Amino acid sequence: MSAREAIAKARRIVVKAGSSSLTTPQGAIDANRIDALVDVLAARRAEGAEIVFVSSGAIAAGLGPLGLTRRPRDLATQQAAASVGQGLLFARYTSSFARYGATVGQVLLTADDMIRRTHHRNAQRTLEQLITLGILPIVNENDTVATDEIRFGDNDRLAALVAHLIRADALVLLSDVDALYTGDPRRPGVRRITDVHGPGDLAEVELGGSGRVGTGGMVTKVEAARIAGIPVVLTNAASAAHALAGDEVGTLFHPADGRRLSTRDLWLAHATTGQGRLTLDAGAVDAVVLRRKSLLPAGVTGVEGDFAAGDPVDLCDPGGRVVARGLVHYDASEIPELMGRSTRWLARELGAEYEREIIHRDHLVVLTEQ
């Protein structure tokens, strides 16, 4: 079965719409665009598919009521616009889906919900239960409480993580352009990319900036496709029905090797941010990356950051390149005393509780290959 056929027959699909697909040229929410997109989603749902919809647009929906003509730059005003706009946006979706007798449920997530394992599992259970109950989940980042330090920054990455969270079969990213191009499609000589099988197909692509009311750009969509690990179509909202039908529209990102990371590994690799860094010697890098072993104190040569036991930390090779990430068993302040020591020595000198690895292999994901 081809990737296009897999999308056409997908049972569970995540569809993401950016702000530019939902707004007028002035940046206000466009009711006609929303209704047209809901028509497409409702039709696919009537065919038996389970749909999870990731929608941007909360900040854009709040611009008009706040008397703003453009997206604010400061975080406080963005959060105020999201606070006003999220309710308006969801009310619009509720009304539009009600035309088809469909009930929708709002799920607002922050990056912290993905970083913290218990929150991650709660989000997973909530989405699964909504789907089981026949509710169509509408997911957005919780912009009212997200901070610059901890946020998705765009809904492309959020959509890819949600796709993993619910074990979706396909992901459709709707943008203000109909496909991925080698550069600005308005320039002469620019070529459309129809299929992406790997990094080589992106060699000529210029990944540029953000849209007029959103925060994403092509680079975030390419990254989302890489994270997803399932067939991904990038196109515009006008082509949504064709994309879901498996037609030759947009750009199709093929899964790299058909192998999907476990939810735990995806969470560690893409939903967490290293709270510190541990530098490893060459032997430890080889053990962690090639032999998939736990990280022992003897292989650690340096520590940076202020983290606590249970936090995700980045593991670096002697040259400073991040090669893995894992959940550490010790506070940052404890590690200097442990570095270079065997676990047997630590148990004898410091107590039996120190006879353990710094990061167990079950709590570690490799981010590169040697």
From TrEMBL:
InterPro entries: AceGlu_kinase-like_sf (IPR036393), Asp/Glu/Uridylate_kinase (IPR001048), G5K_ProB (IPR041739), Glu/AcGlu_kinase (IPR001057), Glu_5kinase (IPR011529), Glu_5kinase/COase_Synthase (IPR005715), Glutamate_5-kinase_CS (IPR019797), PUA (IPR002478). It is found in: Cytoplasm. Residues 276-359 form the PUA domain. Pathway: Amino-acid biosynthesis; L-proline biosynthesis; L-glutamate 5-semialdehyde from L-glutamate: step 1/2. Coiled coil: none annotated. Belongs to the glutamate 5-kinase family. This is Glutamate 5-kinase. The gene is proB.
